[in-house]
Amino acid sequence: MSRAPRTSFLVPCRDAAATLDDALHSLVHQTADDFEVVIVDDGSADRTRRALDAWATRDARVRVLRTERRGIVSALNAAAHAARGTVFARMDADDIAEPDRLERQLALLDAFPDIAACGTAIRYFPRRTLRGGARRYEAWINGVVAPAAIERDLFVECPIPHPTLVIRRDAFEAVGAYRDMGWPEDYDLVLRLWAAGYRFGKVPDTLLRWREGGSRLSRRDARYDPGAFRRCKVHFLRHRTGDRPVVVWGAGPVGKAFARTLAEAAWTIEAFVDLDPRKIGQEIHGAPVIPPSDITRYRHAYVLAAVGQPAARAAIRSALHAAGFREPEDCCAVA
């Protein structure tokens, strides 16, 4: 067997014949050349098998594994098990990596040995299909760059887009690879890394074109719906809050939805904070709705800023900091 490469791209695919060539073309033409592509065909029924055979024939760096239809977690773990690199890089079979993506991410890991995993900024395509929500999410992802910002906003959304993930193999194996918990496997991996004390970084430039459309697994599978994301967040929030009760700042749709998931997890909610005078004095899940001026009465609790708009989130953070709450020790933003 030839010398093991430094990096192994982990690429699961199923029925990806329409997009596979563009994705693999972008990988084999990376400016960093010490890599392999471990691609797992998860029971494709289209022309994917034929396309993969052609790629493996003309480029020895492309290694193809075939399995029955077992799902993305099984495919990813099969790729990781077969991989020879000391660094893993994620990629999906319908996305496109910029030529210097891997080189730039490896340079970040080399420059910062305390960073275990990193991502990049992204750009959705095709642009004509994008709706407002996708554009806002793209802007949010691309604005959360520094390690401190990534940790601060870890419970708003996953700040490391999974197709951009580059991770040291030892960190990946230390937290137990991928697992299926009924919520997003990528977010679960990132939060387990965080809970184990690992740090994250991000290359601020757009190095991956992320295909948007109704065929994406995240648009079709219940493991990626908003409720599954909330369950994942609540599960890991214990690592940040300990046994402290919580105050939910935000009695609108985001705050109420998050509170329902907290209640399902038997979490004590001591109060809700809201600006609307019509809500103040009411109760939600048996907890009073209070005005922001009363927040200092709950210094013993952990405050969750549960609002959807970035401007409202920033205003809540400012109010909490002015009241003496530290982030993330005493409060954090969720969505």
Give a structural overview.
The chain has twelve helices and 14 strands. It is an alpha/beta fold and 335 residues long. The strands form two sheets. The protein has an eight-stranded mixed β-sheet with strand order 3-2-1-4-7-6-8-5, sandwiched between helices. The model has no long low-confidence stretch (mean pLDDT 95).
- The percentage helix is 25-40%
Order of helices and strands: EHEHEHEEHEHHEHHEHHEHEEEEHE
Strand order of the largest sheet: 3-2-1-4-7-6-8-5
Structural class: alpha/beta
Strand content: 15-25%
Question: Would you summarize the structure shown here?
Answer:
With 335 residues, the chain is α/β, with parallel strands linked by helices. It contains twelve helices and 14 strands.
Main attributes of the structure:
single chain, 12 helices, elongated, 37% helix
Topology:
Elements: E1 7-13, H1 17-28, E2 35-42, H2 48-58, E3 62-67, H3 72-82, E4 87-90, E5 96-97, H4 101-111, E6 115-125, H5 132-143, H6 147-152, E7 166-168, H7 169-174, H8 185-195, E8 199-211, H9 217-220, H10 226-241, E9 246-249, H11 253-264, E10 269-273, E11 283-284, E12 287-290, E13 302-306, H12 310-322, E14 331-334
Parallel strand pairs: 1-2, 1-4, 2-3, 6-8, 9-10, 9-13, 10-12, 13-14
Antiparallel strand pairs: 4-7, 5-8, 6-7, 11-12
Helix pairs in contact: 1-2, 8-10, 10-11
